Amino acid sequence: MARHLITSAIPYINGVKHLGNLVGSQLPADLFARYMRARGHDVLFLCATDEHGTPAELAAAKAGQPVADYCAEMHRVQADLAAGFRLSFDHFGRSSSEENRRLTQHLAVKLFEAGLIEERTERQVYSVADGRFLPDRYIEGTCPNCGYEKARGDQCENCTKQLDPTDLIDPRSAISGATELEVRETKHLYLLQSTLRDRLAAWIDEQADWPVLTTSIAKKWLFDGDGLQDRGITRDLDWGIPAQFEGAPWSGMEGKVFYVWFDAPIEYIACAAEWAAAQGLADADWERWWRTGRDAGDVRYTQFMGKDNVPFHTLSFPATLIGSGEDWKLVDYIKSFNYLNYDGGQFSTSQGRGVFMDDALEILPADYWRWWLLSRAPESQDSEFTWEAFQTDVNKDLADVLGNFVSRVTKFCRSKFGEAVPAGGAWGERERQLIADLSTGLARYEAAMDAIAIRRAAQELRALWVMGNEYLQEAAPWAAYKEDPDRAAAVIRLALNLIRVYAVLSQPFIPDAAAAMRRALGTEDANWPGDMEAALGALAPGHAFAVPDVLFRKITEEERDTWQARFAGGRG
User: Confidence class of residue 571 from pLDDT cuts 50, 70 and 90?
Assistant: First the structure.
């Protein structure tokens, strides 16, 4: 049994996330966590809400709530939606937790003591109308590189060029639209990332099995242009982890907080401390996952994220942990994703464009979405959600292949043998061939899941479902029953057992349907089929079962058209 630490990029607090966010981190992380548990491994799967920074303040103001109350409410909303999508977090924490405050301040002190934090005076944009310094992303203007009129002060979303606010043409406040902007001096703490470039580069070079997407983005930030830059880790804000605190080795940081991208990744660790506290466990119980000197040396740590988060997880967060000089566990594998686009355009949280998690669950159960999103995961390139593709895949894969197999087998058995696994008959050459094919297919499925090749894993799982349908069609128990009832009984006995096997193998993708299959079969046996022949005999003759409700209904053209029209615009 191995130990697997799994984290997904923590979602920002300001609102419900869309399906592109979901498939870019949390959902594939859940797939992997469920699979590793099913294989008998020890798993700690962590996520949290990212709650600090200007966007949280603005969202709270728009909602007419104190920011702390807003964040608490939205954490509950996001936790409920995660549960609705059956995301099996061991703990869903909060970056505003006391554990994260203590750990963030502790690591900042360690970095300062290592000579990796220094105070710098910088010139920053101040909005007279808003009465505040503006974070780079809250300054908008025209990109000097491509002419895009809504470029942010940190990056142009259109051409992806990294920018400074002073680079923008006709800059304005993204908060109020005010153009009365001044450049004022302010002091901040900087993490001297540039001094760690060689160590980070050597560490990244050791990760030979990382996806090309992950390493290419990391090396671009390391070496392109002026290379890895020192990064300010404080901001002039009220909401966040205070940068001036008892025991701080610096002064003059009153009224400042740590930059959200400094404290947010630290929440991965703090979340484990929150988990331990919630379980009434000792510090040693979470440290065994995170401190290599305290038994975390054999932990395999896997992170899941969209490609926009890769620089912070391959460079800034490792720089914090390496630079601290302490024995923190570094990530072993980063599974990064391209973007899922929406029906000819882009998903957009700010514009409310696309299908969001709450809307999705209102329309259909989670398994429909889980299957489609994972089977179309944007691994090697951007992919696109269209209502036509969604309808086609749900109807063909879930209803026609898996659902149809379960329905035909259980209903035929009930009509001819009653609601119990039938006795009689023996397996012949066709059954032995099926067992061999299933064993080979299972090995391919396991290899894809072990490699976190998600689309390939979905294809291999569907191929296993198809094998059962093809066998049933060829064996034709409805025809055999007329001449040789024992032969029909043998076919159906194998097929009922195959439903249980499908439930076990499919659980990481479609957990609700898998549970429904096992309930119908009256079994809690979720053992992974290491020996396919033995697995297909697990339900003995006489074992009672019930015909389940329809596992997956088909999506009609009328529904598809209605939903497509409903979600063409914003969320209102």
Answer: low
Integer Cα distance of 228 and 192 in angstroms: 10
pLDDT of residue 154: 84
Cβ atoms of 50 and 11 closer than 8 Å? yes
Each residue's pLDDT tens digit, 25-69:
999 999 999 999 999 999 999 999 999 988 898 899 889 999 999
> d(Cα 20, Cα 340) in Å, to the nearest integer?
5
Q: Who's near 500: CB < 8 A, 6+ residues apart?
A: 517, 518, 521, 523, 525, 535, 538, 539
Mind listing the pLDDT tens digit for each residue in 249-267?
999 999 999 999 899 999 9
User: Is residue 233 within 8 Å of residue 108, measured between CB atoms?
Assistant: yes
Q: What is the 3-state secondary structure (H, E, C) of 511-568?
A: HHHHHHHHHHCCCCCCCCCCCHHHHCCCCCCCCECCCCCCCCCCCCHHHHHHHHHHCC
C-alpha–C-alpha distance, residues 120 and 229, integer Å: 14
pLDDT tens-digit readout, 502-558: 999 999 999 999 999 999 999 999 999 999 999 999 999 999 999 999 999 999 999
3-state secondary structure 98-113: HHHHHHHHHHHHHHHH
Burial of 295 (0-12, 13-18, 19+ CB in 10 A): middle
CA 296 to the chain's CA centroid: 23
CA quadruple 30, 532, 368, 7: dihedral, nearest 10: 10
Residues whose CB falls within 8 Å of the CB of residue 249, separated by 6 or more in sequence, listed in order: 109, 112, 113
| Whole-angstrom distance, CA of residue 7 vs CA of residue 199 | 24
pLDDT band at 330 (very low <50, low <70, confident <90, very high): very high
CA trace torsion 20, 22, 25, 30 (10° rounding): -150
- Per-residue b/e over 420-448, b at no fewer than 16 CB within 10 Å? bbbeebebeeebeebbebbeebbebbbeb
Q: According to the model, what pLDDT value does residue 570 have?
A: 66
Beta carbons of 169 and 144 less than 8 angstroms apart: yes
Q: What does the pLDDT average to over 312-321?
A: 95
Q: Which residues contact 205 (CB under 8 A, 6 or more apart)?
A: none
Give the span between the Cα atoms of 308 and 24, in whole angstroms: 10
β-strand 383-385 against 340-342: which pairing, if any?
A: parallel
In the beta sheet, which residues pair with residue 259?
none
End-to-end CA distance of the chain: 49
Q: Collapse the DSSP code of 148 into the 3-class scheme (helix H, G, I; strand E, B; otherwise coil) and give the result.
A: coil
Quote the tokens at residue 363.
Answer: 């329309």
Q: What one-character-per-residue DSSP string does 380-443 give?
A: SS-EEE-HHHHHHHIIIIIIIIIIHHHHHHHHHHHHHH-SBPPP-----HHHHHHHHHHHHHHH
| Token pair for 115 | 């000579």
Is there a contact between 340 and 347 (Cβ–Cβ < 8 Å)?
Answer: yes
493 neighbors 541 (Cβ within 8 angstroms):
yes
Structure tokens at 482: 């007329």
